[in-house]
Design a protein that fits this description.
Layout: H1 6-9, H2 33-49, H3 68-78, H4 134-139
Length: about 160
């Protein structure tokens, strides 16, 4: 086998070196002449009033990877719950959380129906309160018979 030398791998004899490209070229646009004139006028006025004026505000939005609105919304989404402990989702991946199906039916196979309520009260069938009775007086906001003061006068808070 013949030994390869660096010279034999390199470019052929007489070839020119490749063109160099400077990737660090400054591509910022030249500042607007009107902005420079305004900034210079503000600085000259600041000399008279002994104020400090900072100029040089440029619109750098063209150099951004994302627009300002996209960046703000992405930042808001990423930091929305920062420092806020969220409650865990106990209905995990394999727990059924949809609308009830056969398991929600009663009387089907091994799912008996619950017993009816022990007491049923139909308030529409109750008779009206007799006029002047304690129930009538309390319903109108008056104290029951035998009490001279209302609950407000006795220092009791009204029921809400």
């Amino acid at each position: 086998m013949s030994a390869l030398t660096l010279a034999s791998i390199a470019a052929p004899a007489g070839a020119e070196p490749p063109e160099r490209i400077d990737i660090l070229v400054d591509t910022t646009p030249e500042p607007d002449k009107a902005d420079e004139a305004l900034c210079k006028a503000e600085q000259e006025a600041a000399i008279i009033t002994n104020e400090i004026v900072v100029c040089g505000q440029r619109d750098n939005s063209q150099h951004r990877l994302y627009s300002s609105d996209d960046s703000e919304s992405r930042f808001a989404e990423e930091t929305m719950n920062e420092g806020d402990i969220r409650t865990p989702d106990v209905a995990g991946e394999y727990i059924f959380t949809g609308p009830p199906t056969v398991s929600g039916l009663c009387g089907f196979l091994f799912n008996p129906c619950p017993a009816p309520p022990a007491i049923l009260i139909n308030f529409e069938e109750l008779p009206a309160t007799p006029i002047g009775s304690d129930a009538d007086r309390v319903g109108r906001g008056l104290p029951p018979m035998g009490y001279e003061t209302s609950p407000d006068d006795a220092g009791l808070a009204p029921a809400q």
